[in-house]
Write a structure and sequence with these properties.
Helix content is 5%, strand content 38%. It is built from 2 helices and 17 strands. It starts with 22 loop residues before the first strand and ends with a strand.
Length: 231
């Protein structure tokens, strides 16, 4: 994958847009399309994409946990799957937390801006809080959605704290060179992995999310849908 060094700002967020404007799918790969489509952009319900005769689109549907590979034709984005005219479609179910992904996406802005969670105070309870999202790969793909304040030397600090076992928190210093398409940090690119069955809090600035790694999570990268986390 190509790592781009520029951090790009996303548009302002809209609160609870109508279903027709919901961001329902994520473009994973695209090649040879008759119109410009960028990888790792979110697509709205009703959007059409012209792939021409041989263009290829790989798209992930967030709610239905469906990964589609489409070759040629005109693609119309639906809520849970695509409609294709004049092309070929192959689909595959992926393990993902569709309910959580769809919920956070329904609150996202039209330009890709996301509604972020502010960090909550740590609980005094001895038991860890339930995971806000379950991931099915041990190497998360973290989508910051928009630039976050960078600290000393222009580095963004992502804190990874295990909640279900005694473990020293880890701080990952992220520079622009580490980001994919200006906003995504891939644990796989830096060969970092979380433990199967572990519960973690990921924090950057005032943004925080708790994730639970499925006990049978794929070691390594795994499918994008199964490890995508929006911080």
């Amino acid at each position: 994958m190509i790592i781009r060094a520029m951090i790009i700002a996303s548009g302002g967020a809209l609160a609870f847009p109508a279903l027709a404007a919901d961001l329902v799918a994520l473009v994973e790969e695209v090649s040879g399309a008759a119109e410009p489509v960028e990888p790792f952009t979110y697509m709205t319900n009703g959007k059409t994409v012209d792939l021409g005769l041989q263009g290829t689109l790989v798209i992930d549907y967030l709610r239905s946990c469906t990964r589609e590979t489409i070759t040629g034709g005109t693609v119309t984005i639906g809520i849970d799957h695509s409609s294709v005219t004049g092309g070929k479609l192959r689909s595959k179910k992926i393990e993902c937390d569709g309910e959580r992904l769809a919920f956070s996406t329904s609150q996202a802005g039209q330009a890709g801006g996301l509604v972020f969670r502010k960090m909550q105070a740590k609980s005094d309870s001895a038991s860890p809080p339930p995971g806000e999202q379950t991931i099915y790969g041990t190497m998360p793909l973290v989508d910051f959605g928009e630039p976050l304040p960078h600290g000393e030397n222009g580095k963004l600090r992502l804190m990874v704290e295990r909640l279900d076992a005694a473990s020293k928190p880890a701080t990952i210093e992220i520079t622009a060179d580490h980001l994919l398409y200006g906003r995504l940090y891939d644990f796989a690119a830096s060969h970092r992995a979380l433990a199967q069955g572990g519960v973690y809090r990921l924090t950057a600035g005032e943004r925080s999310i708790t994730v639970r790694v499925d006990p049978t999570a794929t070691s390594g990268a795994g499918p994008v849908l199964g490890r995508l986390v929006r911080l």
